[in-house]
Amino acid sequence: MRNTSIMEKGLKLDFDKLRWDLLPIECVEEIVKVLTFGAKKYADNNWQLVENSTERYYAALMRHIVEWRKGDPVDRDSELNHLSHALCNLIFLLWFEKNQHQTKIIDDLNYEVDEKVTWM
Questions:
Q1: Could you report how far apart the first and last alpha carbons of the chain are, in Å?
Q2: How far is residue 30's CA from residue 17's CA, in Å, rounded to a whole number?
Q3: Taking CA atoms, which of 15, 27, 65, 76 is between 20 and 30 Å from 2?
Q4: Confidence at 106, pLDDT banded by 50, 70, 90
Q5: Could you tell me which residues come within 8 angstroms of residue 30 by beta carbon, excluding any fewer than 6 positions away?
Q6: Is 12 helix (H, G, I), strand (E, B) or coil?
Q7: 101 C-beta neighbours (distance < 10 Å), count
Q8: How far apart are CA 9 and CA 20, in angstroms?
Q9: Does residue 92 come out as left (phi exceeding 0), alpha (psi in the -120 to 50 range) or beta?
Q10: What is the pLDDT of residues 16-31, one digit of tens each?
């Protein structure tokens, strides 16, 4: 029997890398469907500009979870799964948490626009 060396088998040092192969891509695709629906309805990445975003996306998350728990799996407006919408809202909340500085700037800009409109 022949002794196979590392060079004959091949070596790939990826044991400490992120395991993207563990992510169920069909679930990710459902989230992308929700994002696509939102982009068509509002605008690309409009969700990043929503004022009071954390509270509003938390409320939206909970509405989708409650509807799903009540036995209604599909959102009537989008015809997509409520859990897909809930996951999308969780991603938004995570994004806002990771980008707090940017969301503060957005909230400040929204406030300035509101103030200008009020005084005009």
A1: 88
A2: 25
A3: 15
A4: low
A5: 80, 81, 83, 84, 87
A6: coil
A7: 7
A8: 23
A9: alpha
A10: 999 999 999 999 999 9
Rounded (10°) angle between helices 82-98 and 53-69: 160
Q: Are 47 and 76 in contact (CB under 8 A)?
A: no
Q: Cα(18)–Cα(120) distance, rounded to whole angstroms?
A: 52
Q: Which residues contact 96 (CB under 8 A, 6 or more apart)?
A: 53, 54, 57, 103
- How many CA within 13 A on the CB side of residue 20? 4
Q: Could you list the beta-strand ranges (E) of the chain.
A: none
pLDDT above 90 coverage of the chain, percent:
70
Return the amino acid letter for 64. H
